[in-house]
Amino acid sequence: MTSGNSNSGGGANDTLPGAPVPFPGEPAVSREVARSFGLSDEEWDRVVFFLGRDPTYAELGVFSVMWSEHCSYKSSRVHLARLPTEGPQVVQGPGENAGAVDIGDGFCAVFKMESHNHPSYIEPYQGAATGVGGILRDVFTMGARPVASLNSLRFGRPEHPKTPHLVRGVVAGIGGYGNCIGVPTVGGEVQFDASYDGNILVNAFTVGVAESDKLFFGTADGVGNPVIYVGARTGRDGIHGATMASAEFDEDSDKKLPTVQVGDPFMEKLLLEACLEIFAANVLVGVQDMGAAGLTSSSVEMAARSGSGIELDLDKVPRRARALTPYELLLSESQERMLMVAKRGFEDEVLAICARWDLEAAVIGEVTTSGRFVCKATPGYDPLVSSPNEAAPQPVVDIPVGALADEAPKYDRPQVEPAPAPLVPEPPLDVDPSEALRALIGSPNIGSRQWIWRQYDHIVRDGTVFRPGEADAAVVRVFCEREGEPTREKLLAISVDCNGRHVQLDPRQGAAMAVAECARNIAVSGGKPLALTDCLNFGNPEVPETMWRFARAIDGLAEACRALDVPVVSGNVSLYNETEGRPILPTPTVAIVGQLRRPEDRVPLGFARPGDVVAHLGIPSRGALGGSEYWVSRAGHVGGEPVGIDLDDEARLQRALLELAQARLLASAHDVSDGGFAVALAEMCLPNGLGCQVRLPGDPSVLPVARLFSEEPTRVIVSFDPERALEVTQICEAHGVPLDHLGEVGGDELVIEAAVRVPVAELAALHHACLDRIVSD
Amino acid sequence: MKIAVVVFPGSNADWDALHAVRDVLGVDAEYVFHKESTLGAVDAVVVPGGFSYGDYLRAGAIARFSPIAKDLVEFAKSGGPVLGICNGFQILTELGLLPGGLTRNAHLRFECRDVWVRVEGGGPFTHALAQGTVLRLPIAHAEGRYQIDPEGLARLEANEQIALRYCSATGQVSIDAPVNPNGSVGAIAGVYNEARNVLGLMPHPERAAEAILGNTDGLRIFECLLEHLKAAA
């Protein structure tokens, strides 16, 4: 297959005799067919321009998936460029399968978050499971062993008829995949809101650990190097998954079931172990997982990164279904497959390691200098039934790689500022605060997630230092191994966050609040935030109001990442999350990886000792209830004035928290977020069944209810030994952070001035029971 | 002294076991891949947790056809100490090295949490723990419901083969949830073979062997093994 050898030569691309001709049995191609594949008329014209002819059916399929929103980021690329991606800690920024950040001694944390929203709504178990499988592959493709996963989930109203089924299916799917492959699922977040009734969100995050100078990239360098297919055989599942993920849903969405992939975590476990062995053998040039748009996107992206070409012999692709056409082979999203480019002459070593792990592998092509993506296949040939000598391949795809990558469409779509969210009706404030706290602590958005995380193996790999619910961030001990050196243990802190309600009210400030809360969770737990990955879930970008929100959210993310020194190293955009014109809340989910210097720095969220001082750190409450759970649950709509955030104050608070933790002054710490001050305090009482008696901080002229339940950011509650009070005060003063002593830990009741008095046992019962009502059979 | 940790395709707590034995206890330990025909010169074997062969068909059912299985059975029959944890327990029952079998949890969900178990009987993995000792150990399984027919159960009781039963934090055994997390017959969490050199248990002692993980109760089971091996040496 080498360019110019006896089997090829001639033709426009110098690799195959002549341009592709229609493959027998495949439908004719036209502008109308292109439309049904999701390409606009303008995009069709562009396809014809690039090729200088009409595409074949397979080529049209290739263009439609590569130019889909999911693969091309055509509506978001112009905006993503505004995100800060650099810093001394960054080992690998965006553009590869995952980002990487330095964790010392030549090791790095490799991580990314990705959405699997559309498939999870259609088939929750497999959709969520393959979302986990996909993000795991993104991480181990980089040469990292995955060490922990988290997820961010959004469901519709608990009382919506589909919600219980979706919650049960998604949770079982995430567990089914992660538990089997043996990567602990150590944390996450869940929110229920009516905007997600027809479009749930499943965002999966994984972090792995690698030696920084041994990362692998998705490159296809070196003319004549073999392209090797490794893993599961190709079937018809998931064809056009990427296109499906780039369109709105309508009432016929259930009919899209065949576009959902089916996962096999056992196969992925074998793939993981085999890949890590292959990487260690130093026989590869590059590697890329076959995720969205399968064989097509993996080949094209690798060639694009290297400025090379790739030529594939589709006859050689391992398959499990009969009579697969080139179109199907190229667009299948069958899971657990990898594409590798090996150093020439080392293909047998790759195949031998695969055989040791009982994995199928085949050389299916090679790297060329043509700058073109070329595929050939034999009409009527099927390796499952035909004998090899029947193969007489003809060209079926021949496309310039650039047309599918850098020169893919890129749109700066129109933006219109939407009308502000309604300020009325306001929620009633003349309520019994104790009663309001009881309602919130057991509500679906605030109650315990124990029913969920107990279905995840959150302790496999012997590294889970903080289990779910024990601290604001997950803290995981990771083992860093380098040949010839003793194993090093390092501690990562990880958090995932977003509250779409605050983003809806003010996309810029709301997105900044998501970054701030995520980083705060790391600092509260004793870690230094290092870098961020995002998963930007929005509605239809062709709606100018949605595009405006998207652009403003990017601005907010960028500002917060700069202020808190957490560059963006990887990410994902999921648009068209709307059904019949109703978009989801704008949900720019972020995940941050941080690091603890040593185990003693870790800080749990639960009160530890009776007699400890309870104090409020940060900006006193103004009692602003906009976007809060209190507002939404009582007023029945996402409204109110945006609460906003001051990023300078936030940065000061986080620096103070880190220093307090590293000085080992804190017995517990918990940030004030969903549900506000009263809920945060209640959550600190629950782990050890310890109550407290405190004063209510904030502006005394504001009604207690507003100060109890406001979700204004940049606030943390801490507890510490009274004998260390002076040291705590000094550190807070040094950082310019307000510190307010509120009371002390003790008793079996949560008491806040005259406003709230509730037994801790009652709060615990309400908290624990919250999901049972939704998911019980 | 050397301990083997057998790695089947789909084993995923192999690291947990190796780390606990080698790094925490400081004993020489190594992985033995399932395609090996011999365990080599080892003094004890751990069959770790995971999803061998994806747990397809039935948990542990396919692992018994692996090349290493023959030598593993011979090692056990010759009296060598074998510890099967979680999926390892399932594999040992499928190999016929332990009585009974393990089926889907009564509530049909995977469950990961701490449970308490009471030490019932002695053997190389529990001999230094007084009967009635309560250990807090984590579980993480979907198919941990121990099942055995009434005659088999009677034999287990008569031979004192029951090693561990699920109990409350204060040591009260109960067959009811949540004390018994999976509906196991007799709240059985771990059993010995008749010769008492093979132990299978659903909880994960290797994940409760370090202060940084908040629990060292699991270490006591491995310490029993070490004492046993030292005495035998």
Gist of the model:
The complex is a heterodimer of chains A (777) and B (233). By secondary structure, chain A is an alpha+beta fold.
Features of the shown structure:
heterodimer; A: about 775 residues; alpha+beta; seven-stranded mixed beta sheet; 26 helices; 28 strands; disordered N terminus; B: about 230 residues; alpha/beta; Rossmann fold; nine-stranded mixed beta sheet; two-stranded antiparallel ribbon; 11 strands; globular
Give the topology.
The complex is a heterodimer of chains A (777) and B (233).
Chain A: H1 31-36, H2 41-51, H3 57-66, H4 69-72, H5 77-80, E1 90-92, E2 99-104, E3 107-115, H6 117-122, H7 124-140, E4 145-155, H8 163-181, E5 185-192, E6 201-211, E7 226-231, H9 241-244, H10 265-280, E8 284-289, H11 294-306, E9 309-313, H12 326-331, E10 337-342, H13 347-356, E11 361-368, E12 372-377, E13 394-400, H14 401-404, H15 433-441, H16 450-453, E14 464-466, E15 474-480, E16 488-497, H17 500-505, H18 507-524, E17 528-537, H19 544-563, E18 568-574, E19 578-579, E20 582-583, E21 587-596, E22 613-618, H20 629-635, H21 647-662, E23 668-671, H22 676-685, E24 692-694, H23 704-709, E25 715-720, H24 725-735, E26 739-745, E27 749-752, E28 756-759, H25 760-769, H26 772-775
Parallel strand pairs in A: 4-5, 9-12, 17-18, 24-27
Antiparallel strand pairs in A: 1-2, 2-3, 3-6, 4-6, 7-10, 7-11, 8-10, 9-11, 12-13, 14-15, 15-16, 16-21, 17-21, 19-20, 22-25, 22-26, 23-25, 24-26, 27-28
Helix pairs in contact in A: 7-8, 7-10, 8-10, 10-13, 18-19, 18-21, 21-24
Chain B: E1 2-7, H1 14-24, E2 28-33, E3 44-47, H2 68-77, E4 82-85, H3 87-94, E5 101-103, E6 111-119, E7 134-141, E8 145-147, H4 150-158, E9 162-167, E10 188-192, E11 198-201, H5 219-232
Parallel strand pairs in B: 1-2, 1-3, 3-4, 4-11
Antiparallel strand pairs in B: 5-8, 6-7, 6-9, 9-10, 10-11
